[in-house]
Please model this.
Amino acid sequence: MGALIVLPGRQGIESHLRGGVELGGSVSLPLLCSIFSTKSPGHDGAVIMDGSRVGRFGVHLPLSRNVEELTERGTRHTAGLGLSERTDALVIVVSEERGTISLAENGHLEHVPESGQLRARLQSHYERLGLLSAAPKARRWLPGHPRLKALAVGLAVGWWLLTPPIATVQRDFTVPIQYVNLPPDTILAEPSISQANVTLAGPDRAFDLLNPEALRLSIDVGQLPSAEGSATLTVRDLSGHGSLTVERVEPETVSVALLRLEPVALPVRVRLHGEPRQGLTLVSADPAPATVRLLVAPGVGSTTTVDTEPLDVSLLTESQTVRAALVPAPGTRLAAGESEAVLVRVILQPN
Model:
């Protein structure tokens, strides 16, 4: 059974991940076996650990192009190495064919032949993150050696004084706003703010790992107490920023107005484009279904039909049925259960 398990480090990894299914379950042998079983839909993807829990599974990682490091290894090794080249995550790779275990870290793959060696590497990784204390032997040994303790403290202070601090920089981004959890019978009133200015702070290396296109601000419209109200943007509304700190979001408050939609049944109007080919005459173009249910906001105006996308009759050489997408007018929406397209029977006859 193969496996691919990601232990995140200090750097954000979200911008490098694709897909996956949220889980949030306590890690256990039965759980991991069920995920990586060949009968599981997500067995080819990676498990992303979140502390002592399985955060997501079936996740796709970026692939490495380092042919020399990969030699003849498979896709799991390529994915594990790819993420380790971009972040400080530690990735465990179990080969399905060979049954061997490898670790991908800092852009290198290392075969781990013994369980004790694997345990030591995992413990070292979590100690570096401050999630585990030092080895028990060290705790028992240091109290009996006061001179060594004094030397260690002196070296640490000297290193702190002589090492230049990591510079923190700030950068501004224009981030799109997503309005989520819109009630099914409402529509967002115009005008609404579609983007915000966000200031992020962190070291230069963290910005190198940032994908600006992954930044998103979300406003949960479903939390509004009534059809009109205001939503406040907070730090937790921003996604895709990884380990960077959110310093500022402008505007902090966005006024949101909702319009309640009313159901109505309207006929479908087929829009035609172009002229029939030479020797042919257009007889009719009938949609099926002929009417659809629409949700219309009050004050939108006299909406009497639902149009289709333009159909180019010059492309047709004979009578046939074609599929045409519906184009609801602004301020309207197709009712639940209605198809987004209709079938149009176009009748052509020779002149």
